Automatic annotation (TrEMBL):
The chain crosses the membrane at residues 9-29, 35-55, 62-80, 113-135, 142-161, 167-184, 191-211, 242-265, 277-302, 322-344. Residues 359-370 have a biased composition (Low complexity). The keyword Oxidoreductase does not apply. Keywords: Cell membrane, Membrane, Transmembrane, Transmembrane helix. It comes from Pseudonocardia broussonetiae. The keyword Transmembrane applies. GO terms for cellular component: plasma membrane. InterPro entries: ABC_transp_permease, ABC_transptr_urea_perm_UrtC, LivM-like. The gene is urtC. Its main location: membrane. Residues 351-370 are annotated as: Disordered. This is Urea ABC transporter permease subunit UrtC.
Length: 370
């Protein structure tokens, strides 16, 4: 895997194939509706790239990435609602349930520049503070997973309990425009898909560069033996926090693009269940690989959409069963399937191979003179 990552021509060829599939093949073969669904899956794949970096390479079981996905999504949704209301206007849902006008913390999001900067900086700040607070105390493993999951639950409860500011349990929806472009125009919706595809390719390139760098080796070393890294003079807390911040920014950007593509964001998109769903996609695809999390997240999201239409109550059980099967029998995900099949074939060949003939007994050579 490392040799493939470091091969410049293989990586360049892979990016060219990915770009052709996303920018040429998909728009030519898919309808506008299916292209929008694929754009939604690409947003999940952006979150998966970050989870693969933090969990697969850094060993941090991030079960609360829905928080950062939700931060980016809600910040973008606030900007779109204010843009639809016009200069000084009040979003429609606020006018229906409150007469207090726009809250003060909403006002800065009238600016597109402030919104775009906040989508990157705010999740990075939250993840940085949380990472330093936990990793410096050497909190890891199951404890970190529970902490991140509790953060996702608290964030969803906060959104539901503030209907005048976040739309409550129904969330924010009914967007009409995106940075001055009408969302009802099919051309603009296709442009959003291209933006999501380009953002995903950039994130994969960033993740690949981090994996093959000196920092990537340090991150893997922190995962395998944190005490040895500390003994060598490095600070594992800083190494892990940087990966956690990178994953948070990727999740936030994915959430920000999710809103204009899908047209709605609610607490159901940011709580514990969607966070675990993203984790399942990464586990199935192969968390330690570069493309495994991307393909796993897209496959699980596609299966969820398809099977939810035919067996809506059974998809959750199928998702859980897939996760258990992969963890029990294929810990490296589907990306490791080729290696597992190769090992089984070698074992089978060794058993079928006839035993080597026994060596002939050595005859003592007589020595002359006695």
């Amino acid at each position: 895997m490392k040799r493939i990552l470091e091969s410049r021509w293989v990586v360049l060829g892979g990016f060219v194939v990915g770009a052709v599939l996303l920018f040429v093949v998909a728009p030519a073969l898919l309808s506008s509706f299916r292209l929008g669904l694929l754009g939604k899956y690409l947003c999940y794949a952006m979150v998966a790239v970050g989870i693969g970096l933090a969990w697969g390479r850094g060993g941090m079981l991030t079960m609360g990435q829905g928080v950062f996905f939700g931060l980016g999504a809600y910040m973008m949704a606030m900007h779109l609602k204010l843009g639809d209301a016009g200069p000084g206007g009040v979003p429609d849902f606020m006018a229906l349930i409150s007469s207090n006008g726009v809250p003060g913390w909403w006002e800065p999001f009238r600016s597109p520049a402030f919104t775009l900067v906040a989508i990157v900086l705010l999740p990075a700040l939250v993840a940085g503070l949380l990472g330093l607070a936990t990793f410096r105390r050497r909190i890891r493993g199951a404890y970190f997973a529970i902490l991140s999951q509790a953060l996702a639950a608290a964030f969803a409860i906060l959104l539901i309990g503030n209907p005048t500011g976040t739309g409550g349990s129904t969330g924010l929806n009914g967007f009409k425009g995106f940075l001055g472009f009408s969302l009802n125009d099919p051309v603009n919706r296709r442009l959003l898909f291209f933006i999501a595809a380009g953002a995903l390719l950039v994130m994969v390139a960033v993740a690949r560069q981090l994996m093959v760098s000196r920092y990537g080796e340090l991150l893997v070393a922190c995962r395998d033996s944190e005490e040895r890294v500390r003994f060598l003079g490095y600070d594992p807390a800083l190494v892990k926090t940087f990966a956690y911040v990178t994953a948070a920014v990727m999740a936030s950007v994915g959430g920000a693009l999710f809103v204009p593509i899908v047209g709605i964001v609610s607490p159901n998109d940011v709580g514990i269940v969607p966070s675990i769903g993203l984790l399942i996609g990464v586990a199935i695809g192969g968390r330690t690989t570069l493309l495994g999390p991307v393909l796993g997240a897209i496959a699980v999201a596609w299966a969820g959409t398809t099977l939810s239409e035919s067996i809506p109550s059974g998809w959750t059980y199928i998702q859980g069963l897939m996760f258990m099967l992969v963890i029990a029998f294929l810990p490296g995900g589907l990306a490791s399937l080729g290696g597992v099949v190769g090992d089984l074939r070698d074992r089978f060949d060794r058993r079928r191979r006839p035993p080597a003939p026994a060596a002939a007994p050595r005859v003592p050579v007589p020595t002359g003179g006695s």
